[in-house]
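User: Quick sanity check before I run a bigger batch. Here is a single chain. Can you write out its predicted 3D structure?
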Amino acid sequence: MPKRLLLVDDEPGIVKGLKFSLEQEGYEVDAAFDGGEALQKFDEGEYDLILLDVMLPVLDGIEVCQRIRESSAVPIIMLTAKGEDMDKILGLEYGADDYMTKPFNVLEVKARIKTILRRVQAPSEEQAPSVLTIHELSINLNQRSVSACGEEVTLTAKEFDMLRLFALNRGKVYTRDQLLDLLWKNDYSGDLRTVDVHIRRLREKIERTPSKPEYIITKWGVGYYFTDK
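Assistant: Done. Predicted structure follows.
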């Protein structure tokens, strides 16, 4: 079954070109031209990935991303013409999985989509149990679901990948550079604060007291590790 994508951009030329190119790759592509229409289509359909422009009429892309994240972990790639670090950090705060700055190469867009979809659907490590239970945290590797203190937690695709990496390698310290290389590989050329944003969001979702984390611990001057206690 072909993967379904939702493309949201208010520039008809970009929508037409991307839609045609992605359909040539075998994707089913729906298009929306403003934030309100994007949310309506999201509510009415099921999508494997969303390409979402930041600057949109009616509702901007950041607000659309935030509303989608209230109920779904569908991968979201934000598209922005600004390319400013604060825009990227702000977007990640609301749950975007990745960023691309306009103008972009269509081949790069395709590569990013394939990479994210492959990671989301990647089989669990053969030697790992299907469910990891660590204190009051439960991680289902097959279903890519997480619960903390008995409550289901909604993570983005990237947040889950980061949590899985940590939980399967408890006690191992990862530097920011290592995390970027392992989780983003060559798909992201931004700064190291991206890692810090994802760490903070993970802590807010799984920790009882994010300012005093029990699971994801900071090794000052080095990086982060998952508790081995």
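The chain has two domains: 4-120, 131-226.

User: Great, the batch can go ahead then.
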